[in-house]
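Hey, sorry to bother you again with one of my protein questions. A protein chain has come my way and I'm curious about its shape. It would help a lot if you went through both lines with me. I owe you a coffee for this, so here goes:
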Amino acid sequence: MVHAHMTAWFLALVLFFVALGLHKSGKEKGFKVLKMILRVLYILIIATGVGLLLSLSNISMMYILKAAVGVWVIAMLEMILGRTAKRESTKVLWIQFIIAILLVLYLGFSLPLGTYLFKG
């Protein structure tokens, strides 16, 4: 389940930046298609995340915090794409996205479930 979760969020991040590139190059149809694919990936990310949470025998507040920050990341991805499509300012959203992604990656790789990237 951990690998499915990591694959889904990694693919979502890659497609997010591809969608931004498509919008920048003026390919609106491709941009809209990728937004829809990303929404399916958001569902997969949330479903695998909930599955991971439910597989734990003891859910600590750190896991709940990580889940909340993960939802924050997904919200920022969707809001950035929405405002980009409307050609509105996204500066504050990008700042929030960077903070949230760094926090969720730190929490995800330092908690006992899954991969130990930040453990000594």
